[in-house]
């Protein structure tokens, strides 16, 4: 077939062929939308997952410091700080996933919101290392 006959063949379709082609187009668009949705969802889920290796390393460092340097007060404070920093990440995973998915579906305008919430949670957990309680559970000293 030459190019001219192919051109005329594509123009001269029966009405049934035209209806079939028109029906198939929305399904292709729908597949694209579903794929786009899951692509966005997977990007949103990857944001908190990227923080987990760092939190795992901090748990390991705090365990090594607390088990090897039990008599050193400074090492124990650093171990408590590292344990608090990693513990808050693991205990707040539902919050972090919710924030990340919300940011993803709001056209990536809130990545700074994720970082701010994470920084606040880590800051609050680091303060626990400096509070010391007596046997009755009352705050005795801050340092």
Describe how the helices and strands are arranged.
Blueprint: H1 3-11, H2 15-49, H3 52-68, H4 73-91, H5 93-104, H6 111-126, E1 132-133, E2 139-141
Antiparallel strand pairs: 1-2
Helix pairs in contact: 2-5, 3-4, 4-6, 5-6
Q: Please state the CA-atom Rg, rounded to the nearest Å.
A: 29 Å
- List unreliable stretches of 5+ residues: none
Shape: elongated
Distance between the termini: 89 Å
Mean pLDDT across residues: 78
Q: How many structural units, i.e. domains?
A: 1
Structural class: mainly alpha
Which percent range describes the beta-strand content? Answer: under 5%
The major beta sheet can be summarized as: 2 strands, antiparallel
Total of DSSP H or I helical runs spanning 4+ residues: 6
Q: Main sheet: which strands, in order across?
A: 1-2
Q: What letter string, H or E per element, gives the SSE order?
A: HHHHHHEE
What oligomeric state do the depicted chains represent?
single chain
Number of strands: 2
Share in helix: over 70%
Describe this structure in words.
The protein is mainly alpha-helical. The protein has one domain (23-135). The protein has 6 helices and 2 strands; from the N terminus they run H-H-H-H-H-H-E-E. The chain has a two-stranded antiparallel sheet.
């Amino acid at each position: 077939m030459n190019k001219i006959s192919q051109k005329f063949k594509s123009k001269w379709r029966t009405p049934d062929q035209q209806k079939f082609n028109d029906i198939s187009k929305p399904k292709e668009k729908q597949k694209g939308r579903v794929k786009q949705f899951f692509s966005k969802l997977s990007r949103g889920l990857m944001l908190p997952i990227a923080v987990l290796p760092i939190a795992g390393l901090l748990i390991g460092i705090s365990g090594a410091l607390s088990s090897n340097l039990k008599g050193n007060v400074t090492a124990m404070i650093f171990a408590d700080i590292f344990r608090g920093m990693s513990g808050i990440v693991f205990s707040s995973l539902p919050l972090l996933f919710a924030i990340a998915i919300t940011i993803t579906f709001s056209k990536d305008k809130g990545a700074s919101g994720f970082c701010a919430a994470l920084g606040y949670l880590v800051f609050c957990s680091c303060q626990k290392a400096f509070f010391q309680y007596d046997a009755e559970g009352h705050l005795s000293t801050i340092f």
